[in-house]
Amino acid sequence: MHLPVDLVFRMLVWGTLVLGALIFGLVLLGAGIQYRRDRQNRRRIVLYQAWEKDLDAFLFSPSGTSRPFPAIPQGDRFLFEKFLARYYATLAGQEAEALRELYLGLGLHHSLPERLRHRKATTRAQAAQEVRIFRLTDQLEAVVPLLNDPVPYVTHLAAQALTRSGDLQYAKPVLDWVLREEQYQRDRLLRVLEGFGPELLPWMKGHLPPPDQDPEPWILYVLLVAAHRHAASQPSLGWLLQIPHLDLQASVLKALSVLADPVAYAWVLPFASSPAWEIRAQASRALGVLGGPSAIPTLLALMADPVYEVRRNAAQGLADLGHAGISALTWTADDSTADRFARDIARERLEWTDERGHQ
Amino acid sequence: MSRIWPEDTKVLVVEDDAATARIIQARLEMEGLSVFTASNGVDGLETLQQQDIDLVTTDLMMPAMNGFRLVQEIRDLPPPKGRVPILLISSNQNEQDMVRCLAAGADDYITKPISAQVLVERLWRMLQRASAAG
Q1: What is the pLDDT of residues A173-203, one digit of tens each?
Q2: CATH number attached to the domain at B10-133
Q3: Does the distance separating the beta carbons of B113 and A90 come in below 8 Å?
Q4: Which of A49, A85, A322, A352: CA 20 to 30 A from A149?
Protein backbone atom coordinates (compact mmCIF):
# COMPACT_ATOMS: atom_id res chain seq x y z
CA MET A 1 0.00 0.00 0.00
CA HIS A 2 1.38 3.38 -0.99
CA LEU A 3 0.40 6.47 1.00
CA PRO A 4 0.67 9.87 -0.62
CA VAL A 5 3.91 11.61 0.30
CA ASP A 6 1.99 14.68 1.41
CA LEU A 7 -0.08 12.65 3.89
CA VAL A 8 2.99 10.93 5.31
CA PHE A 9 4.68 14.31 5.73
CA ARG A 10 1.66 15.75 7.55
CA MET A 11 1.41 12.70 9.82
CA LEU A 12 5.08 13.04 10.71
CA VAL A 13 4.68 16.74 11.51
CA TRP A 14 1.60 16.17 13.66
CA GLY A 15 3.11 13.16 15.36
CA THR A 16 6.20 15.18 16.22
CA LEU A 17 4.08 18.04 17.52
CA VAL A 18 1.92 15.74 19.68
CA LEU A 19 5.00 13.98 21.06
CA GLY A 20 6.69 17.31 21.73
CA ALA A 21 3.59 18.60 23.52
CA LEU A 22 3.43 15.43 25.58
CA ILE A 23 7.09 15.72 26.61
CA PHE A 24 6.64 19.40 27.35
CA GLY A 25 3.60 18.61 29.49
CA LEU A 26 5.50 15.95 31.40
CA VAL A 27 8.43 18.31 31.98
CA LEU A 28 6.04 20.96 33.24
CA LEU A 29 4.35 18.46 35.53
CA GLY A 30 7.70 17.29 36.92
CA ALA A 31 8.83 20.85 37.46
CA GLY A 32 5.55 21.60 39.22
CA ILE A 33 5.91 18.61 41.53
CA GLN A 34 9.53 19.51 42.26
CA TYR A 35 8.60 23.12 42.96
CA ARG A 36 5.89 21.97 45.37
CA ARG A 37 8.30 19.66 47.16
CA ASP A 38 10.94 22.37 47.40
CA ARG A 39 8.39 24.76 48.81
CA GLN A 40 7.27 22.18 51.36
CA ASN A 41 10.88 21.48 52.33
CA ARG A 42 11.66 25.16 52.68
CA ARG A 43 8.60 25.58 54.84
CA ARG A 44 9.56 22.54 56.92
CA ILE A 45 13.06 23.92 57.46
CA VAL A 46 11.73 27.33 58.48
CA LEU A 47 9.23 25.76 60.88
CA TYR A 48 11.80 23.35 62.33
CA GLN A 49 14.24 26.18 62.95
CA ALA A 50 11.57 28.17 64.76
CA TRP A 51 10.38 25.15 66.75
CA GLU A 52 13.95 24.24 67.75
CA LYS A 53 14.32 27.65 69.41
CA ASP A 54 10.89 27.30 71.01
CA LEU A 55 11.76 23.83 72.27
CA ASP A 56 15.02 25.04 73.82
CA ALA A 57 13.16 27.81 75.62
CA PHE A 58 10.45 25.37 76.64
CA LEU A 59 12.85 22.75 78.00
CA PHE A 60 15.86 24.73 79.15
CA SER A 61 14.80 28.14 80.24
CA PRO A 62 17.68 29.81 82.11
CA SER A 63 15.23 31.30 84.58
CA GLY A 64 14.23 27.80 85.63
CA THR A 65 10.60 28.23 84.61
CA SER A 66 9.87 26.91 81.17
CA ARG A 67 8.26 29.17 78.62
CA PRO A 68 5.00 27.92 77.10
CA PHE A 69 5.31 26.41 73.65
CA PRO A 70 3.57 28.49 70.96
CA ALA A 71 0.33 27.11 69.51
CA ILE A 72 0.71 24.88 66.46
CA PRO A 73 -1.72 25.64 63.61
CA GLN A 74 -3.84 22.65 62.58
CA GLY A 75 -2.19 22.50 59.15
CA ASP A 76 1.28 22.18 60.67
CA ARG A 77 0.43 19.46 63.18
CA PHE A 78 1.60 16.63 60.98
CA LEU A 79 4.98 18.33 60.57
CA PHE A 80 5.14 19.03 64.28
CA GLU A 81 4.48 15.37 65.14
CA LYS A 82 7.46 14.48 62.96
CA PHE A 83 9.54 17.20 64.54
CA LEU A 84 8.72 16.00 68.03
CA ALA A 85 9.42 12.40 67.02
CA ARG A 86 13.09 13.34 66.49
CA TYR A 87 13.37 14.00 70.21
CA TYR A 88 11.39 10.99 71.46
CA ALA A 89 14.34 8.66 71.62
CA THR A 90 16.78 11.27 72.86
CA LEU A 91 15.38 12.65 76.07
CA ALA A 92 14.62 11.11 79.43
CA GLY A 93 13.86 12.40 82.91
CA GLN A 94 12.33 15.84 83.41
CA GLU A 95 12.69 16.80 79.77
CA ALA A 96 10.88 13.65 78.61
CA GLU A 97 8.10 14.46 81.04
CA ALA A 98 7.94 18.01 79.68
CA LEU A 99 7.76 16.66 76.13
CA ARG A 100 4.90 14.40 77.17
CA GLU A 101 3.03 17.34 78.66
CA LEU A 102 3.64 19.35 75.50
CA TYR A 103 2.38 16.47 73.35
CA LEU A 104 -0.77 16.05 75.41
CA GLY A 105 -1.26 19.79 75.84
CA LEU A 106 -1.29 20.31 72.08
CA GLY A 107 -3.86 17.53 71.75
CA LEU A 108 -1.71 15.53 69.34
CA HIS A 109 -3.00 12.29 70.86
CA HIS A 110 -6.56 12.99 69.71
CA SER A 111 -5.72 11.87 66.18
CA LEU A 112 -4.11 8.60 67.33
CA PRO A 113 -7.09 6.27 66.75
CA GLU A 114 -7.28 7.48 63.18
CA ARG A 115 -3.50 7.36 62.66
CA LEU A 116 -3.24 3.84 64.09
CA ARG A 117 -5.56 2.73 61.26
CA HIS A 118 -3.99 4.93 58.57
CA ARG A 119 -3.28 3.43 55.15
CA LYS A 120 0.36 4.59 55.28
CA ALA A 121 2.63 2.28 57.25
CA THR A 122 4.90 5.13 58.39
CA THR A 123 1.93 6.91 59.94
CA ARG A 124 0.78 3.74 61.75
CA ALA A 125 4.31 3.12 62.96
CA GLN A 126 4.72 6.64 64.28
CA ALA A 127 1.38 6.47 66.04
CA ALA A 128 2.38 3.19 67.74
CA GLN A 129 5.67 4.77 68.74
CA GLU A 130 3.86 7.73 70.27
CA VAL A 131 1.68 5.38 72.33
CA ARG A 132 4.85 3.76 73.71
CA ILE A 133 6.87 6.89 74.35
CA PHE A 134 4.13 8.94 75.90
CA ARG A 135 2.70 5.96 77.80
CA LEU A 136 -0.80 6.43 76.41
CA THR A 137 -2.38 3.43 78.10
CA ASP A 138 -5.87 4.31 76.92
CA GLN A 139 -4.73 3.71 73.32
CA LEU A 140 -3.26 0.25 73.91
CA GLU A 141 -6.40 -1.58 72.82
CA ALA A 142 -6.20 0.17 69.46
CA VAL A 143 -2.56 -0.92 69.14
CA VAL A 144 -3.31 -4.66 69.52
CA PRO A 145 -4.62 -5.13 65.92
CA LEU A 146 -1.30 -3.78 64.62
CA LEU A 147 0.33 -7.01 65.79
CA ASN A 148 -1.20 -8.46 62.61
CA ASP A 149 0.01 -5.60 60.43
CA PRO A 150 1.56 -6.73 57.12
CA VAL A 151 4.52 -4.37 57.63
CA PRO A 152 7.10 -5.88 60.04
CA TYR A 153 8.36 -2.65 61.58
CA VAL A 154 4.79 -1.60 62.39
CA THR A 155 4.19 -4.88 64.26
CA HIS A 156 7.50 -4.48 66.04
CA LEU A 157 6.65 -0.97 67.24
CA ALA A 158 3.16 -2.11 68.23
CA ALA A 159 4.63 -4.94 70.29
CA GLN A 160 7.03 -2.50 71.93
CA ALA A 161 4.16 -0.19 72.83
CA LEU A 162 2.29 -3.08 74.46
CA THR A 163 5.26 -4.53 76.34
CA ARG A 164 6.53 -1.18 77.60
CA SER A 165 3.13 -0.63 79.19
CA GLY A 166 4.02 -3.50 81.54
CA ASP A 167 0.35 -4.51 81.41
CA LEU A 168 0.26 -8.31 81.39
CA GLN A 169 -3.21 -8.43 79.84
CA TYR A 170 -1.31 -7.85 76.57
CA ALA A 171 1.20 -10.63 77.26
CA LYS A 172 -0.77 -13.26 75.34
CA PRO A 173 -1.19 -11.34 72.04
CA VAL A 174 2.44 -10.24 72.12
CA LEU A 175 3.68 -13.74 72.91
CA ASP A 176 1.54 -15.17 70.11
CA TRP A 177 3.07 -12.63 67.75
CA VAL A 178 6.59 -13.54 68.87
CA LEU A 179 5.91 -17.22 68.31
CA ARG A 180 4.59 -16.48 64.82
CA GLU A 181 7.82 -14.72 63.88
CA GLU A 182 10.88 -16.37 62.38
CA GLN A 183 13.29 -18.05 64.80
CA TYR A 184 16.32 -16.14 63.55
CA GLN A 185 14.76 -12.99 64.99
CA ARG A 186 14.58 -14.47 68.47
CA ASP A 187 17.16 -12.16 70.06
CA ARG A 188 15.44 -9.05 68.72
CA LEU A 189 12.05 -10.32 69.87
CA LEU A 190 13.38 -11.20 73.29
CA ARG A 191 14.36 -7.58 73.79
CA VAL A 192 10.76 -6.63 73.01
CA LEU A 193 9.43 -9.15 75.53
CA GLU A 194 11.85 -7.86 78.15
CA GLY A 195 9.75 -4.70 78.12
CA PHE A 196 7.17 -6.44 80.31
CA GLY A 197 9.84 -6.82 82.99
CA PRO A 198 10.46 -9.93 85.13
CA GLU A 199 6.75 -10.06 86.06
CA LEU A 200 6.22 -11.76 82.71
CA LEU A 201 8.02 -14.88 83.98
CA PRO A 202 5.45 -16.00 86.59
CA TRP A 203 2.71 -15.10 84.10
CA MET A 204 4.29 -17.36 81.47
CA LYS A 205 4.67 -20.16 83.95
CA GLY A 206 0.98 -19.99 84.73
CA HIS A 207 -0.27 -19.63 81.16
CA LEU A 208 2.02 -21.63 78.86
CA PRO A 209 1.07 -25.12 77.67
CA PRO A 210 3.10 -28.00 79.22
CA PRO A 211 6.71 -27.92 77.93
CA ASP A 212 6.65 -31.53 76.70
CA GLN A 213 3.72 -30.61 74.44
CA ASP A 214 4.97 -27.24 73.20
CA PRO A 215 8.57 -26.42 74.17
CA GLU A 216 8.98 -23.31 71.94
CA PRO A 217 7.42 -20.77 74.32
CA TRP A 218 9.40 -22.30 77.16
CA ILE A 219 12.61 -21.61 75.29
CA LEU A 220 11.59 -17.95 75.33
CA TYR A 221 10.82 -18.28 79.02
CA VAL A 222 14.30 -19.67 79.69
CA LEU A 223 16.02 -16.97 77.63
CA LEU A 224 14.03 -14.31 79.47
CA VAL A 225 15.12 -15.77 82.82
CA ALA A 226 18.69 -15.29 81.59
CA ALA A 227 18.02 -11.78 80.26
CA HIS A 228 16.52 -10.66 83.58
CA ARG A 229 19.03 -12.72 85.60
CA HIS A 230 15.95 -13.86 87.48
CA ALA A 231 17.41 -16.10 90.20
CA ALA A 232 13.95 -16.87 91.62
CA SER A 233 13.17 -18.80 88.43
CA GLN A 234 16.14 -21.15 88.77
CA PRO A 235 14.08 -24.05 90.19
CA SER A 236 11.95 -23.91 87.03
CA LEU A 237 15.12 -24.22 84.97
CA GLY A 238 16.01 -27.40 86.85
CA TRP A 239 12.61 -28.79 85.99
CA LEU A 240 12.83 -27.75 82.33
CA LEU A 241 16.27 -29.34 82.01
CA GLN A 242 14.57 -32.72 82.38
CA ILE A 243 12.42 -32.19 79.26
CA PRO A 244 14.12 -34.13 76.45
CA HIS A 245 14.19 -31.33 73.87
CA LEU A 246 17.51 -30.27 72.43
CA ASP A 247 16.91 -26.50 72.00
CA LEU A 248 15.18 -26.26 75.34
CA GLN A 249 17.94 -28.05 77.22
CA ALA A 250 20.66 -26.04 75.46
CA SER A 251 18.84 -22.82 76.36
CA VAL A 252 18.48 -23.89 79.98
CA LEU A 253 22.20 -24.64 80.21
CA LYS A 254 22.93 -21.22 78.74
CA ALA A 255 20.61 -19.57 81.27
CA LEU A 256 22.18 -21.47 84.16
CA SER A 257 25.60 -20.15 83.24
CA VAL A 258 24.16 -16.63 83.26
CA LEU A 259 22.61 -17.12 86.70
CA ALA A 260 25.96 -18.55 87.87
CA ASP A 261 24.59 -20.31 90.94
CA PRO A 262 27.01 -23.13 91.94
CA VAL A 263 24.01 -25.18 93.14
CA ALA A 264 23.26 -25.88 89.46
CA TYR A 265 26.66 -27.51 88.87
CA ALA A 266 25.33 -30.97 89.75
CA TRP A 267 22.41 -30.46 87.30
CA VAL A 268 24.76 -29.54 84.47
CA LEU A 269 27.49 -32.17 84.92
CA PRO A 270 25.58 -35.13 83.34
CA PHE A 271 25.02 -33.05 80.18
CA ALA A 272 28.77 -32.87 79.53
CA SER A 273 28.52 -36.37 78.08
CA SER A 274 25.34 -35.76 76.06
CA PRO A 275 25.33 -37.29 72.57
CA ALA A 276 24.19 -33.89 71.17
CA TRP A 277 27.10 -31.51 70.60
CA GLU A 278 24.84 -28.46 71.12
CA ILE A 279 24.16 -29.67 74.65
CA ARG A 280 27.83 -30.48 75.32
CA ALA A 281 28.82 -27.02 74.06
CA GLN A 282 26.44 -25.24 76.44
CA ALA A 283 27.29 -27.60 79.29
CA SER A 284 31.01 -26.91 78.91
CA ARG A 285 30.36 -23.16 79.01
CA ALA A 286 28.20 -23.54 82.13
CA LEU A 287 30.65 -25.88 83.90
CA GLY A 288 33.37 -23.25 83.78
CA VAL A 289 31.08 -20.70 85.40
CA LEU A 290 29.42 -22.99 87.95
CA GLY A 291 31.99 -25.61 88.81
CA GLY A 292 35.11 -23.94 90.06
CA PRO A 293 38.30 -26.06 90.08
CA SER A 294 36.24 -29.24 90.43
CA ALA A 295 35.13 -28.77 86.79
CA ILE A 296 38.71 -28.88 85.45
CA PRO A 297 38.91 -32.65 84.71
CA THR A 298 35.57 -32.57 82.82
CA LEU A 299 36.55 -29.44 80.90
CA LEU A 300 39.92 -30.94 79.98
CA ALA A 301 38.12 -33.99 78.60
CA LEU A 302 35.73 -31.71 76.65
CA MET A 303 38.68 -29.91 75.07
CA ALA A 304 39.32 -33.10 73.10
CA ASP A 305 35.73 -33.17 71.80
CA PRO A 306 35.42 -33.76 68.04
CA VAL A 307 33.22 -30.61 67.70
CA TYR A 308 35.05 -27.26 67.63
CA GLU A 309 32.29 -25.33 69.47
CA VAL A 310 32.49 -27.73 72.40
CA ARG A 311 36.30 -27.48 72.56
CA ARG A 312 36.15 -23.69 72.30
CA ASN A 313 33.59 -23.40 75.12
CA ALA A 314 35.52 -25.83 77.31
CA ALA A 315 38.68 -23.76 76.84
CA GLN A 316 36.68 -20.62 77.58
CA GLY A 317 35.28 -22.33 80.67
CA LEU A 318 38.80 -23.08 81.87
CA ALA A 319 39.91 -19.50 81.23
CA ASP A 320 36.91 -18.29 83.26
CA LEU A 321 38.13 -20.29 86.25
CA GLY A 322 41.06 -17.93 86.67
CA HIS A 323 44.51 -19.08 87.78
CA ALA A 324 43.69 -22.80 88.13
CA GLY A 325 42.00 -22.93 84.73
CA ILE A 326 44.78 -21.00 82.99
CA SER A 327 47.33 -23.41 84.54
CA ALA A 328 45.34 -26.34 83.15
CA LEU A 329 45.27 -24.68 79.72
CA THR A 330 49.03 -24.02 79.84
CA TRP A 331 49.72 -27.58 80.90
CA THR A 332 47.63 -28.94 78.02
CA ALA A 333 49.21 -26.58 75.50
CA ASP A 334 52.71 -27.72 76.50
CA ASP A 335 51.91 -31.43 76.80
CA SER A 336 53.10 -33.17 73.63
CA THR A 337 51.20 -36.31 74.62
CA ALA A 338 47.87 -34.47 74.99
CA ASP A 339 45.15 -34.85 72.39
CA ARG A 340 45.97 -32.72 69.33
CA PHE A 341 42.56 -31.02 69.36
CA ALA A 342 42.89 -30.22 73.05
CA ARG A 343 46.43 -28.88 72.61
CA ASP A 344 45.45 -26.67 69.67
CA ILE A 345 42.40 -25.16 71.36
CA ALA A 346 44.37 -24.58 74.57
CA ARG A 347 47.05 -22.71 72.60
CA GLU A 348 44.41 -20.72 70.72
CA ARG A 349 42.70 -19.73 73.94
CA LEU A 350 45.94 -18.77 75.67
CA GLU A 351 47.00 -16.63 72.70
CA TRP A 352 43.65 -14.88 72.79
CA THR A 353 43.92 -14.41 76.54
CA ASP A 354 47.38 -12.84 76.14
CA GLU A 355 46.10 -10.49 73.43
CA ARG A 356 43.22 -9.36 75.60
CA GLY A 357 45.49 -8.96 78.62
CA HIS A 358 43.35 -11.30 80.75
CA GLN A 359 45.32 -13.45 83.06
CA MET B 1 21.61 22.18 92.18
CA SER B 2 23.60 25.18 91.00
CA ARG B 3 27.16 24.65 89.90
CA ILE B 4 29.81 27.21 89.25
CA TRP B 5 31.70 26.00 86.22
CA PRO B 6 35.21 27.34 85.66
CA GLU B 7 35.15 30.31 83.34
CA ASP B 8 35.12 29.47 79.64
CA THR B 9 34.75 25.73 80.09
CA LYS B 10 34.68 24.22 76.62
CA VAL B 11 32.80 21.06 75.78
CA LEU B 12 33.09 19.13 72.55
CA VAL B 13 29.92 17.25 71.58
CA VAL B 14 30.58 14.57 68.96
CA GLU B 15 27.24 13.28 67.76
CA ASP B 16 25.96 12.34 64.32
CA ASP B 17 22.30 12.83 65.17
CA ALA B 18 21.66 16.54 64.68
CA ALA B 19 18.65 16.63 67.02
CA THR B 20 20.56 15.00 69.87
CA ALA B 21 23.58 17.23 69.33
CA ARG B 22 21.40 20.30 69.33
CA ILE B 23 19.53 19.38 72.49
CA ILE B 24 22.79 18.62 74.34
CA GLN B 25 24.25 21.88 73.10
CA ALA B 26 21.21 23.86 74.27
CA ARG B 27 21.33 22.28 77.73
CA LEU B 28 25.07 22.81 78.16
CA GLU B 29 24.87 26.40 76.93
CA MET B 30 22.21 26.95 79.54
CA GLU B 31 24.92 26.01 82.06
CA GLY B 32 27.10 28.72 80.57
CA LEU B 33 29.48 26.31 78.83
CA SER B 34 31.00 26.92 75.41
CA VAL B 35 29.94 24.09 73.16
CA PHE B 36 31.60 22.86 69.98
CA THR B 37 29.89 20.20 67.91
CA ALA B 38 31.16 17.66 65.41
CA SER B 39 29.17 15.08 63.50
CA ASN B 40 31.78 12.31 63.49
CA GLY B 41 35.01 11.23 65.15
CA VAL B 42 37.27 12.66 62.45
CA ASP B 43 35.81 16.16 62.77
CA GLY B 44 35.72 15.78 66.55
CA LEU B 45 39.41 14.94 66.70
CA GLU B 46 40.22 17.92 64.49
CA THR B 47 38.20 20.26 66.71
CA LEU B 48 39.88 18.84 69.81
CA GLN B 49 43.28 19.60 68.34
CA GLN B 50 42.30 23.15 67.38
CA GLN B 51 40.57 24.15 70.62
CA ASP B 52 41.38 23.89 74.32
CA ILE B 53 38.58 21.47 75.09
CA ASP B 54 37.89 20.62 78.74
CA LEU B 55 35.30 17.87 78.29
CA VAL B 56 34.22 15.58 75.47
CA THR B 57 30.93 13.77 74.98
CA THR B 58 30.77 11.34 72.12
CA ASP B 59 28.25 9.04 70.56
CA LEU B 60 29.31 5.45 69.95
CA MET B 61 27.92 4.71 66.52
CA MET B 62 29.00 7.33 64.02
CA PRO B 63 30.15 7.39 60.42
CA ALA B 64 33.80 7.87 59.45
CA MET B 65 35.15 7.25 62.97
CA ASN B 66 33.08 5.71 65.74
CA GLY B 67 33.18 6.52 69.45
CA PHE B 68 35.50 3.66 70.43
CA ARG B 69 38.02 4.70 67.84
CA LEU B 70 37.74 8.36 68.82
CA VAL B 71 38.44 7.50 72.46
CA GLN B 72 41.50 5.50 71.43
CA GLU B 73 42.74 8.32 69.18
CA ILE B 74 42.28 10.91 71.92
CA ARG B 75 44.09 8.76 74.46
CA ASP B 76 46.99 8.42 72.03
CA LEU B 77 47.44 12.22 71.99
CA PRO B 78 50.05 13.74 74.30
CA PRO B 79 48.73 15.41 77.48
CA PRO B 80 46.86 17.57 78.25
CA LYS B 81 44.63 16.81 75.22
CA GLY B 82 45.14 13.09 75.64
CA ARG B 83 43.76 13.26 79.16
CA VAL B 84 40.60 15.19 78.45
CA PRO B 85 37.64 13.57 80.27
CA ILE B 86 35.39 11.67 77.88
CA LEU B 87 31.75 10.77 78.38
CA LEU B 88 30.32 8.19 76.00
CA ILE B 89 26.69 8.46 74.99
CA SER B 90 25.02 5.57 73.28
CA SER B 91 21.66 4.10 72.52
CA ASN B 92 23.20 0.68 72.91
CA GLN B 93 22.74 -0.77 76.38
CA ASN B 94 24.93 -3.76 75.73
CA GLU B 95 27.01 -4.55 78.79
CA GLN B 96 30.01 -5.60 76.72
CA ASP B 97 29.99 -2.34 74.82
CA MET B 98 30.06 -0.42 78.08
CA VAL B 99 33.06 -2.43 79.25
CA ARG B 100 34.80 -1.95 75.89
CA CYS B 101 34.27 1.82 76.06
CA LEU B 102 35.65 2.11 79.54
CA ALA B 103 38.58 -0.15 78.67
CA ALA B 104 39.32 2.08 75.68
CA GLY B 105 39.83 4.99 78.07
CA ALA B 106 36.44 6.64 78.41
CA ASP B 107 35.76 8.09 81.85
CA ASP B 108 32.04 7.48 82.00
CA TYR B 109 29.12 6.18 79.99
CA ILE B 110 25.45 7.08 79.70
CA THR B 111 22.76 5.61 77.52
CA LYS B 112 20.04 7.22 75.45
CA PRO B 113 17.46 8.41 76.17
CA ILE B 114 19.44 11.06 77.99
CA SER B 115 18.35 12.83 81.11
CA ALA B 116 19.84 16.29 80.71
CA GLN B 117 20.25 16.57 84.47
CA VAL B 118 22.21 13.32 84.61
CA LEU B 119 24.34 14.41 81.66
CA VAL B 120 25.25 17.71 83.29
CA GLU B 121 25.92 16.03 86.63
CA ARG B 122 28.23 13.46 85.06
CA LEU B 123 30.14 16.14 83.17
CA TRP B 124 30.44 18.18 86.34
CA ARG B 125 31.80 15.19 88.27
CA MET B 126 34.22 14.35 85.48
CA LEU B 127 35.54 17.90 85.43
CA GLN B 128 35.90 17.89 89.21
CA ARG B 129 37.85 14.64 89.11
CA ALA B 130 40.05 15.91 86.29
CA SER B 131 40.78 19.13 88.20
CA ALA B 132 41.59 17.17 91.35
CA ALA B 133 43.93 14.91 89.40
CA GLY B 134 45.66 18.01 88.02
Answers
A1: 999 999 888 777 777 888 889 989 999 999 9
A2: 3.40.50.2300
A3: yes
A4: A85
